[in-house]
Automatic annotation (TrEMBL):
Its EC number is 3.6.1.11, 3.6.1.40. The keyword Hydrolase applies. Residues 304-468 form the Ppx/GppA phosphatase C-terminal domain. It is an enzyme of class 3 (hydrolase). GO terms for molecular function: exopolyphosphatase activity; guanosine-5'-triphosphate,3'-diphosphate diphosphatase activity. This is Exopolyphosphatase/guanosine-5'-triphosphate, 3'-diphosphate pyrophosphatase. The keyword Secreted does not apply. Keywords: Hydrolase. Pfam families: Ppx-GppA (PF02541), Ppx-GppA_III (PF21447). Residues 18-296 form the Ppx/GppA phosphatase N-terminal domain.
């Protein structure tokens, strides 16, 4: 049983589902209209009131989650948390409130998860499709075939900002709508060509915005499908009401009218720019994608592994050296008896990719690799994971002052020691028998190696002395004992 929590810009949502044969069946669904994006002040900070509302919701979600025996829980935050300047300060409180780590995912990762939810719901392996998702703070376009994603982009235009910016004070008129639609079109016009209909057979609208608009169109007799004509007809109906507070239509809850007017402008802009004939709403998206991702991870089909392997190929890494360092680093790390599993996989992946910066320059390659890892579009990884890997890669070579602030975390230090030693032994051309080496770490680092290795590998003593000096600079004692 899995739980997906989506901290969206407009609503916080929770799904609890169970994998049942070829599908994930939703057992529990909760939605709270938090309006987080509307809680950003002029400086881009979440206001105290917005944060308190969010925390109260997260505490309620924690109660719901505690009532189920869950195999996996993943909490993802999207556009509003991506842009909030004080997100880093708010995150610890939010995590404490819900009781789970919160991942602020990129727009591209959001798009991939959305597509995963749609693709698994459709189960049409050969269909070429475009998926559009209009959220509170961003809009994602995903082009794919069956389960495979061919292109994904995220655009910083969403229902909340569009509504607040163009329908001032809730006024709805022709001029406001034309301005809102033109603004939306400007976001998509340059990116539109790869998403034109010749590249797909069916267009799906996966967001609550698209589903609500489709529902309004059908229930109010405007039409039977979502196309440019029916969208314009709905726009005209909204204009006739004159103000958001007066909008009353079947299929539209009063609390959603304020954002749907902006969402409609975005959808009309998309249909114009991409020449979309019909948008088919679908009851699947980000939360279903998150649960499928949890299921795949539990069955050892982790997309992060695929991303790392793709990087190895793309940046022409020496796989023999990469695999050796990764295996050695993990073996050394396990000798230090870390308190948990937090760094094991990220250490292994960092070790595999530690030389990818050589595609830029051999000088300072670790700095290039760290920058690339932190800023790359790596499917399956969160920004926090990529930052952790970037810090490990940056720390594997040279001085340790650059990660001094992270050295208070014992398991991180153990991971750094293991990676640095694995690289050191590889550069010394040593084939390590791990029954003959001991690495311990409590208040200091203790390394025990065979005496004959010093004679067999002349540079080893030099590199080990340099290693002791580097750790001494950050106040960590590194003792080396030779035996035999």
């Amino acid at each position: 049983m899995y739980a997906a929590v989506d901290l969206g810009s407009n609503s916080f949502r929770l799904h609890i589902g169970k994998h049942d044969g070829e599908a994930i069946r939703v057992l529990k669904s909760v939605r709270e209209p938090i309006r987080l994006a509307a809680g950003l002040d002029a400086q881009g900070n979440l206001t105290p009131a917005a944060m308190q509302t969010a925390l109260a919701c997260l505490k309620n979600f924690r109660v719901v989650l505690a009532a189920y025996k869950l195999d996996g829980v993943r909490v993802v935050a999207t556009s509003a948390m991506r842009v909030a300047r004080n997100a880093a300060a708010f995150l610890p409180e939010a995590e404490l409130a819900i009781g789970y780590p919160i991942e602020i995912i990129s727009g591209e990762e959001e798009g991939r998860l959305i597509y995963m939810g749609v693709a698994n719901a459709l189960a049409l392996p050969g269909e070429r499709r475009l998926v559009i998702d209009i959220g509170g703070g961003s809009t994602e376009l995903i082009l794919g075939r069956g389960q495979e994603i061919e292109r994904v982009e995220s655009f910083s235009v969403g229902t909340v900002k569009q509504s607040l910016s163009f329908f001032i004070g809730g006024r709805v008129d022709s001029a406001s709508y034309e301005a809102a639609i033109l603004s939306a079109r400007s976001h998509f016009e340059d990116a539109a060509p790869p998403y034109h209909p010749q590249y797909w057979k069916q267009c799906y609208g996966s967001s609550g915005t698209a589903r609500t608009i489709a529902d309004i169109i059908v229930k109010n007799g405007i039409g039977r499908e979502v196309n440019l004509d029916t969208l314009n007809a709905l726009k005209q109906r909204f204009i006739e009401f004159g103000h958001v507070s007066r909008i009353e239509m079947a299929g539209l809850r009063p609390d959603r009218a304020g954002t749907i007017i902006g969402g409609l402008a975005i959808l009309i802009g998309l249909v114009h720019e991409l020449d979309i004939p019909v948008v088919q709403p679908i009851e699947a998206g980000l939360r279903m994608g998150v649960m499928w991702d949890l299921h795949l991870r539990s069955t050892k089909r982790d997309r992060r592994e695929q991303s790392v392997q793709a990087c190895l190929l793309k940046f022409h890494c020496d796989e023999r050296r990469a695999n050796r360092v990764a295996d050695d680093a993990l073996a050394l790390y396990m000798q230090t008896k870390p308190a948990g599993e937090q760094y094991s996989r990220h250490l292994y992946w960092s070790a595999l990719l530690h030389e990818m910066g050589m595609v830029v320059s051999h000088t300072g390659y670790h700095k290039h690799a760290a920058y690339m890892i932190e800023n790359a579009d790596l499917p399956g990884f969160t920004a926090r994971e990529q930052k952790t890997m970037a810090r490990l890669i940056s720390a594997h070579k040279g001085n340790l002052r650059k990660v001094a602030d992270a050295l208070a975390e014992p398991d991180f230090v153990k991971a750094v020691v293991a990676l640095r030693l694995a690289v050191l032994f590889m550069h010394s051309r040593m084939d390590i028998d791990f029954t003959l080496i001991k690495l311990r770490m409590k208040n200091r680092i203790e390394l025990e190696i065979r005496r004959e290795w010093i004679g067999d590998h002349p540079t080893l003593s030099y590199w080990l002395e340099k290693e002791q000096e580097q750790w001494d600079e950050v106040g960590v004692d590194f003792s080396i004992r030779t035996i035999g």
